[in-house]
């Protein structure tokens, strides 16, 4: 044991204690989860309307209203509301024609649903690294990687190692920070890939003036209780392709052929439609969305002010040319301070302050290790240095 550790705290303890103090100075006064919902509008009124009318389930006016108002907010032709973000990804992949045996490129750094939905669709996830700037797929890296990995025949990419067709790429907007989806769409076009955005975390995030979710064929949002706005549980697909939208709607509602009384179903399909009672909550939450994002951005400014006092790392800040919803605030330790991550997490959690790390890179998880992957040093590096901070809008 060194004499230093006998006489006082080690340097990393000083770093972690200081960081915990700064987090507590912004978030410590109010006990909260990592990102709790905020109800300050007509939520109770609309829920009562559902209960009074009896329309709480698969029939009722709020679903269409939620779909229309969500489509309008993001600037999409159509939105299809479903039971959660994971089912939205699954349905979108199937609706876009992703077949069993196809390979689908996904970022190694994401919530597990980005990869599990691909496997549920019968396809094979193929993991790629992320950009240290956007924390999403980098278009130049993607192009270079595809050049090494596939050959293009008749506009279709075939993985030269596995022999499987690579048919889609699913960029994700980490913590609400947009990936370079325009660049990714350009590369996808070169290689004949469909783009499906996992925009689950990015409602209210923009690249230039364009809302996330619409750079490719379709985009997916989640309205789980911990997202920017919630429907209890819920998700949606947005698209500008009205034929695709009609197909997705049909597949989300058991592919039942409209008829006064007969049960006729013309495809193998899902029962993924969002119930009316969830949509009612969603309509009320959409009315509050701008206010909630304003608060999330203000919270970012407060963390920025607090962390400006130290040089242990930096707060994740929006990439120039993009506008983030700041769904989750994140502090990235500098490489020489990365060993403080575990202490910050355990000390905060012991004190009831809700923090968490980023997701373990998906290509390291048991069920996914067997799938193809590029080298993913950036995903590992970011994972080893990031702490997500209490991010509820009411803080
Ligand atoms: C939340 C989330 C999902 C899944 O949404 P659920 O509604 O929880 O199923 C998918 N992808 C990402 C990146 C998410 O953060």
SSE blueprint:
Blueprint: H1 3-7, H2 11-28, H3 43-53, H4 61-74, E1 78-82, H5 85-95, E2 103-107, H6 113-120, E3 124-128, H7 139-149, E4 150-153, E5 156-159, E6 165-169, H8 181-190, E7 194-198, E8 206-207, E9 210-211, E10 218-222, E11 235-239, H9 242-252, H10 276-307, E12 313-315, E13 322-323, E14 329-333, H11 341-350, E15 356-357, H12 377-385, E16 386-389
Parallel strand pairs: 2-3, 2-6, 6-7, 7-10
Antiparallel strand pairs: 1-11, 4-5, 5-6, 8-9, 8-13, 10-11, 12-14, 14-16, 15-16
Helix pairs in contact: 2-10, 2-11, 3-10, 4-10, 5-6, 7-8
Pyridoxal-5'-phosphate binds at residues 84-86, 110-111, 113-114, 172, 198, 200-201, 222, 224, 235.
Describe the structure.
By secondary structure, the chain is of the alpha+beta class. 38% of the residues lie in helices and 16% in strands. The chain has helices spanning 3-7, 11-28, 43-53, 61-74, 85-95, 113-120, 139-149, 181-190, 242-252, 276-307, 341-350, 377-385, and strands at residues 78-82, 103-107, 124-128, 150-153, 156-159, 165-169, 194-198, 206-207, 210-211, 218-222, 235-239, 313-315, 322-323, 329-333, 356-357, 386-389. Strands 1, 2, 3, 4, 5, 6, 7, 10 and 11 form a nine-stranded mixed beta sheet that branches. Strands 12-14-16-15 form a four-stranded antiparallel beta sheet. A hairpin with a 2-residue loop joins strand 4 (150-153) and strand 5 (156-159). Helix 7 (139-149) runs parallel beside helix 8. The longest helix is centred in the C-terminal third of the chain and has 32 residues, at 276-307. It is globular, with a radius of gyration of 22 Å. The protein starts with a helix and ends in a 6-residue tail after the last strand. The relative contact order is 0.20. The model is unreliable at 1-5 (pLDDT under 50). Bound molecules: pyridoxal-5'-phosphate (PLP). Pyridoxal-5'-phosphate binds at residues 84-86, 110-111, 113-114, 172, 198, 200-201, 222, 224, 235.
